[in-house]
Amino acid sequence: MSRQRKPALTMFADHDAYIAEAPENLRPLLVRLRAQLARALPDAEEVIAYKMPGFRIGKSIIAGYAAFSKQCGLYLFPSAITSHADDIAAAGLKSTKTGVTFSPSQPIPDALVRKLALASRKDQNL
């Protein structure tokens, strides 16, 4: 039995390169999410961390995002997810301990992105 090798994960130079390589139908969601995070965290630096785009203040990654084959994810500190679990559920979105997933048919509301980003920042005392 032969094993198929998985392709190596690509290291992206910046957010633009990451978005350009994402599935075409998800790119508008990523562009919008990036802009929302930039507005919510105006003093954050855009970085690539853990092979995905993120927003860093000091040494802390406050928020990150990723694209998969059919959905996107927004990643934050667990306390930000916990403190807004009702808002996430009310938006019809699924969450894990550190992330919220969304798709073109069920995008993440702008106000929720802001709340989550600010909660994630607050939880890091930044």
UniProtKB/TrEMBL annotation:
InterPro entries: YdhG-like
YdhG-like domain ranges (all copies): 27-117
A Pfam family hit: DUF1801
Name of the protein this chain belongs to: DUF1801 domain-containing protein
Classification of source organism: Bacteria, Pseudomonadati, Pseudomonadota, Alphaproteobacteria, Hyphomicrobiales
